[in-house]
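Re: Re: ligand-bound prediction request (bumping)

Still looking for help on this. To restate: I need the protein modeled with D-malate bound, output as structure tokens. Inputs repeated here so nobody has to scroll up.
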Amino acid sequence: MIRVNPHYSKLQASYLFSEIARKVSEFQAGNPDKDIIKLGIGDVTHGLPPACIEAMHKAVDEMAVDATFRGYGPEQGYDFLREAIALNDFASRGVTIQPDEIFISDGAKCDSGNIQEILAQDARIAVPDPVYPVYVDTNVMAGRTGKWKDGRYQGLVYLESTANNHYVPALPSEAVDAIYLCFPNNPTGATVTHDELKAWVEYAREHKSLILFDAAYEAFIRDESLPHSIYEVDGADEVAIEFRSFSKTAGFTGTRCAYTIVPKACRAYDAAGTVQDLHFLWNRRHTTKFNGVSYPVQRAAEAVFSPQGQEQIKALNDGYLHNAAHIRQQISTLGYDFVGGQNSPYIWINTGEDSWAFFDRLLNEAAVVTTPGAGFGACGEGYIRISAFNDFAKVEEAMQRIAAVLGR
Ligand code: MLT
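Reply:
Sorry for the wait, this slipped through. Here it is.
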């Protein structure tokens, strides 16, 4: 008798953003005339940078003729893209990452979800709270947690990120094996300083743990003092894997391209305590389960690093940050406490009410979609997240509608 993976029965009914999409469809079906404004899931709304489109067109033309056609590419990504990343994202900030330490993929969601496959079944996992649900759910699916109880999974170590610690969690009081961190943070929009990150790297080195660092939102950092990569901290290459993405950086949410850095120095251990090579293991997993991102998409991603591409993505992201500034200003006028939106596209607002009820109120009365904080964990209860990914006119309109509802 074939049995299902029993760990799936521990999961909450549906993935957070699927549940929100269901509620939004239901509302739209009942209110076909309402013009819903979506500031929920962090999905970009502007066209791809022209430099990327031009490169993609050229690559499509190459695919049309035998002489330049390409079949299977290297699973880890083409050298032209890996070299461009190593040079522009790392060497330019004084960080040495070799091109072959970079694995191109179709998404940071997939990579940050899949990475736990190369870790031991009994690894003790620490996640921030609130947290991007992918880190949690994938460990539940893998059987690394107990049951859901009182809003949390047993067996996971939750690192509380609250106003009291400026949304940067304290180091765990117990030893953990793997720690997920995300800065600029999803969902709070909080950032981490170099010294705070250094403390995490020191913790990981001392406890022989591994940091899984999600830097998907680094392109929104405008404060020059903030680190863009965990590898800006000395010694991090031995204890950290980093996830990056073109999704938010360059508007690739529908185009799909991301990358994960697994330095060759990055170490883990077997049961006997012998050092193991995580780069080798991730390469083994990646080449077995993934066949590479399409050639035209990798050429489009490479174009992000051209001078025109850099100028265009800066303008794109400055536009989203302008939206974020407007949301911050409006929320402040309404008298709510909030964080984020300065080096991040997300604004995290303390509503002082049940967060799903607040979400429902904004959907039903303002036709504006946000994300209820409780969907990101127990510490998110009472909060909502507003995403700045939309056109400025829509953001302005959404904030007017929200002000009208909350000002009643
Ligand atoms: C979010 O809204 O949290 C993100 O868009 C989700 C994702 O990147 O998968």
